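Data card: per-record layout.
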Amino acid sequence: MTIVATEIAWREAGAADVDALCSLVNQSYRPPAGWEGWLHQAEHFSGDYIDVSALAAYLSRGTIIVAHRGKQILGAVALHFDDNIACIDWLAVPAPC
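The structure for this 97-residue chain is written out next.
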């Protein structure tokens, strides 16, 4: 199901989104040196936050909702459900945002 609001739409991510999502998540959690702003982990950790194989595996056990305009992914949230409770695993938006 896709929900549309002022040219931005939301949908569940699929296997075709893995590369773009991996790039978005890594940019969000490990932005370029010197970037300041909202919470990120670049000062505390080095390397990628997630890789393509881990993200693909996540899709088999969790749900990722992407906000997009056309083919451009604008943001994403990863969710899993535990005893009928939705848990947010991560939220990613482009840096800087």
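Known properties of this structure: The radius of gyration is 14 Å. The longest strand covers residues 72-82.

See the next section for split statistics.
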